[in-house]
């Protein structure tokens, strides 16, 4: 029955009933949406690039600041080490100076003691040479005893206590005390060693 109609009329009705405007409007809306999405995407990409550049600048600034802090810390540690070494050097020099002064003082004291001992020995010899008879012997014995006591007093002033053997009457032991170091040395005196040996040993101990 459709074929029985007039083709021209059929074409006219087809054209009249077939409208492309809604489809064109839909396509236009889709194109607008795509354009809007593309603009939004471009905007977000631009914002991300700006944020990345900003973070890159911040990273560079932080790296430079970190390098400055490391350099400043190294300089401070170097200065602290130099100060510590200077302090140690000063203390060492002061200790050496104190030891030198103490050595000079002890050397002077030892020289004075040696002079006094020599003077006592000379007095003992002179007393023994001029004395005569029993009275002279007693006087010489008194001088010798005084000389021994004075020697013991000198030794004691240096920190040396000499002990006498009760049976033989000889000095057999010496106790050397060093108050500055807090040391105590006990020395057995043997006749096979000279007086110079013991004097040198006592001096080194003191």
TrEMBL record:
It is found in: Cytoplasm, Cytoskeleton, Microtubule organizing center; Nucleus; Chromosome, Centromere, Kinetochore. CDD domains: RWD_Spc24 (cd11565). InterPro entries: Ndc80_Spc24 (IPR013252), Spc24_Fungi_globular_sf (IPR038066). The keyword Nucleus applies. One of its GO terms (cellular component) is microtubule organizing center. Component of the NDC80 complex. PANTHER family: KINETOCHORE PROTEIN SPC24, PTHR22142. This is Kinetochore protein Spc24. It comes from Cytospora leucostoma. The lineage of its organism: Eukaryota, Fungi, Dikarya, Ascomycota, Pezizomycotina.
């Amino acid at each position: 029955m459709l074929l029985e109609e007039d083709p021209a009329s059929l074409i006219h009705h087809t054209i009249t009933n077939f409208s492309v405007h809604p489809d064109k409007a839909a396509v236009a809306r889709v194109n607008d949406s795509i354009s809007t999405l593309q603009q939004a995407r471009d905007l977000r990409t631009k914002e991300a690039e700006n944020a990345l550049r900003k973070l890159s600048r911040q990273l560079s600034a932080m790296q430079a600041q970190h390098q400055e802090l490391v350099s400043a810390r190294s300089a401070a540690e170097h200065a602290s080490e130099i100060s510590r070494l200077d302090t140690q050097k000063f203390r060492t020099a002061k200790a050496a100076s104190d030891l030198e002064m103490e050595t000079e003082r002890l050397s002077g004291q030892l020289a004075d003691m040696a002079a006094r001992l020599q003077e006592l020995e000379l007095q003992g010899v002179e007393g023994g040479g001029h004395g005569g008879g029993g009275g002279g012997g007693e006087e010489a014995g008194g001088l010798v005893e005084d000389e021994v006591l004075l020697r013991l007093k000198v030794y004691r002033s240096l920190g040396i206590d000499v002990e006498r053997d009760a049976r033989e009457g000889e000095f057999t032991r010496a106790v050397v005390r060093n108050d500055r170091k807090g040391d105590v040395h006990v020395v057995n005196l043997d006749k096979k060693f000279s007086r110079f040996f013991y004097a040198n040993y006592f001096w080194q101990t003191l």
